Structure formats: C-alpha cells, structure tokens
C-alpha cells in the first residue's frame, strides 16, 4: 500500500500519476471550519509541490480540529488512492472519512452518516504514503467530501497537500443538448458510400 | 449580489408592547423586517428569506426561506405578543431551517432582533456562536429595546464567537425619534458586506435622509427606473459629445495650417494610386465645371470656420483652460479670415519640397520613398503645376463630398 520514494522518482514518473488535481473544479471547492476562508484551494497542487508549503495551507479554527472539505471535479473520475500531507506537532489529521457524490454535507451530517470508506491516517509529513480506495466504489466520482474528525492531539488540524491518484473519464454530469428529428431527412445523413469517400481511384 | 438564504428571528415577547419606539416596539420591528426582506430579494432575485418567532408558546417557524415577498409580508400579519424570548433556541432552529434550504449554493445568514433581556449566560451563547461559525453561518444582531446590564456584553461576545472575516454585524439602536428601520438602513445589515448599497438601500436611504430631491435627477429610480436610466444616459451622451466636440475643435485648430497640405497630400496620393480612367474623369470634371468647382472649393474651405463658429462657446471654455489651445484657436481664426488667399500660401508652401517631404513623412500611411509619391513631389516643383494639381485634387474631394 505504501510507495516509499527514497529514489528520485524519475523511473516511474510519479507526478503524472497524481494528476487528478487538474480535474478539480477549484472555484467550487469549499471547506467548513477553516480558519482562513478560501485557503482550502491551496492544498491542491502538483505532486512535486506537495512539500512546498511556503504558500497557504488549510488550517482549522483554533481549538477545533475538525475539518470538512468538499471537492467537485470537472468530469467524473475514478480514484485509486488518496494522499494527505498534514502539519507538524500533532496537527496532522488522524482519521479520514469520505463521502461521494453528495453536496451540502455539514458537520452534523458527516458525523451521523456512514462514510463510503474511512481510514486511520498516520503522520505523513513527507507525502510518501498513499491510502488506497476500494476502487469499485470510486468508479464515477463527480464530487468527493473529505471529513477529518480529529487530529493527533494538536489544537488545530493543518493540511498542506491533498492528492488523488486515478484517471479521469471525460464524462460530465452536465445538461445534455439533444436534437430530435420528427421526420429524418436522408439527405442530412449521407453515408460514406454515397459521398464516394474512403476509396481511392486509380485512373 | 451575494446569493444568500436568510432567517429572521423576531422577538414577539411581552417587552415588545412598550411604546418607546414609535408606534410600538413590535410595530417598529415589523417595519424593519419588511424592509430587510425587500432589500434582500432585490439585491439578488434568487435570495430567500424566512421568518420565525422566538417568544410566544415556543420557537415557531412562520415561513421557511422563500423568495416570495408576498408570503413573507402576509405571515407578519396577526402575530401575537406574549411570552418570553428564547434566544438560544431561536438561533438553533434558524440554523436548522437554513440547513434544509433548497438551494445549497446559498450562503447562510441569521438576523436576530433582540429586544428583551437575554436569559442565557455568556458561555452558552459563545458555544452557539462557535457552532454557527463552524458551519459558516453569518449572524446579524439588532440590539434594541430593553437594555439591562450584561445584555450588550453577552451579545458582543456572541458576535465575536460567530464573526468570521467581518461577515457578521451587531447594531445597537437606542430609543429615540428616528424609526428603527431608518437606523438600520445605513448599517451593514442592509448594505451587505461592503458591496456598496443595493439600489434599494441607497434610494431608501436618500429618501429617508432628506426628501425626494436626494436622487440624482429628481426622479426616484425605484418609482420610474426607465426615466432615471434615460436621464442618466442622455447626460452621459451630452458629456461625451461635448468632449468630442472640444477635442475635434482643438484638432482642427492645430491642423488648420497643416490641414491644407495634408488634404492635398492625401489627395495626391489617392490621385497617383487611382486608375488612369479615374484620372481622366477628374481632368474632365476639372475642365467642365471649373466655376462651380471653384465655388465648391470655397465652400469647403469655409466649412471649418463655420463649424468653428458654432462651437465657439465650448471652445472658448476649453481655451481658457489650455493656453496652447488658445494659441491654436487664434491661429485658426486668423487663418480662416485669409482663407481666400490661403491657396497661394499653400502652393508656396508646397513648393518648398523639404517642408512637404517632412510633412509627408509624418503622415501615417504615406511612404515618402514610394515612387508615386516621389513623382508627385517632383511634379510639385513647378509653380503652375501645383495649381492644376490642386484643382484635380479638389475634384476628387468634391466627388467624395457628393
């Protein structure tokens, strides 16, 4: 389950695996109980930047380490594994519970509902650990909600990076534009044989 | 224009019978509620507002968040005063009502009218505040009516616990001649979080402040939005037209001297670029309609002056500000008076080839190295030719003016 990277990652191009962050709809990402509104967007970045916490990171309010992060994707994705980099001094989250394809979850819902999957996390300051999912349940994820109920004893919970490994399916859950024909007109639907295409002529 | 779902918590306890806010505390509160509902639904049509009462038999939700203003106003009728206000329960029920709003994209906000004394202790209120903040619910508190010791302090503590980035506010309204709703209009509760007042709030504020003339054009944008818009647009158009006219006059003034050569130069350019048949036609016209052509020329030369005359007033204003412009104006006025002889002057200037080539070089789209232009320049050396060229040139100009 763990993929320890004490080599330089060049042989199996790790960063391309963790590229699902490109399919996240960043403008619609929200978090509950974050100390700085909007700071949640800073935790989605490329694999190489995962330890680069010079910018902002996500921190919960003082004295309350619970965090809830809602992440919509621009198209349905399949998630193979998740990686979370927390903060030092006990501010890493200790548990993770995820919910799929539900919007508007708040803390009371999250605490009472049964998650799709939950993990006990360890302190992962180097970002080398990943938590595999039960792939069959994560086949068409339009949005995912991560609930971090507690931390390792710290007053707050800090998260520096959240990464998703998997693939995007290009399927979207948008309104479809469908054209109906009451009486189909054959001239609108020429086949290749009729237009004479696809064959080469030798004179 | 933030998308918001709001729950208003009304205090209908016994303390609201008091008349220190005209006509009675309860009535003043009802007016304020009506105004808030109107402002919220106007600032964004998808906003929803709900109302609940905190006193009486218990906390009761009168209407769940809806954008239907009529429904909200209707439910305010027939409310009875009695009982004691339960602030904590009221806020919690409001939070629950917001949680089940239909459009999850709306931001959540609670507006509390705290008129009677607050029974809860500070700790309990702070816990409630923290829970609201955790679920990103904003809270606005209107502190009016009773003012026993500790109430203000408790409410301030509640606000501090809820406040996240200045989205929550508290307003203290003392008893006095101004109505509760008027005081509220100027507060951030009405005007939103620093967006600048919605049109509703701004116009209502103006009306409250000092009569109808508070509006920009003496017309209430709410009463007659089309008229107000038309007035504003025409004002802007007038301003733009004046600016353009002043600018054009200044340009014409400075270009008056250069204008003669410039026109001729562009005319010569076009003449040389034109087809040979066009040239023939021009020559024909020049031969046939010489006298009428001269008249047309005189008129066209006069045109700049006439247009200047019309705009004299604006130009004098503009000139007062700009000494350079004044100088240019003077020159142009002098020029127009001796326009009849300007042709001779122009031709003399044209003869000065260096001057002409420098002018041509500065004109956009004219390449002094272009062979046709060089040809023209060479031909302009002779004294008789310039005159003929000018006639030919003004012929195409006349054609264009036709």
Automatic annotation (TrEMBL), chain A:
Annotated protein name in UniProt: PITH domain-containing protein
Q: What species is this protein from?
A: Hibiscus sabdariffa (roselle)
Entries under InterPro entries matching the protein: Galactose-bd-like_sf, PITH1-like, PITH_dom, PITH_dom_sf
Name the domain of life. Eukaryota
List each copy of the PITH domain by range. Answer: 9-184
Pfam families from the UniProt entry = PITH
Report the Gene3D superfamilies cross-referenced here.
Answer: PITH domain (2.60.120.470)
Indicate the family of this protein. Answer: Belongs to the PITHD1 family.
From TrEMBL, chain B:
* Keyword Repeat in record: yes
Where in this protein does the record put region Disordered? 240-323, 363-402
Q: What keywords are assigned to this protein?
A: Proteasome, Repeat
- Compositional bias (Polar residues): 292-313
Q: Does the keyword Repeat apply?
A: yes
SMART domains linked: UIM (SM00726), VWA (SM00327)
Q: Which Pfam families did the record assign?
A: UIM (PF02809), VWA_2 (PF13519)
Basic and acidic residues compositional bias, start-end: 240-261, 388-402
Family classification = Belongs to the proteasome subunit S5A family.
The name under which this protein is listed is 26S proteasome regulatory subunit RPN10
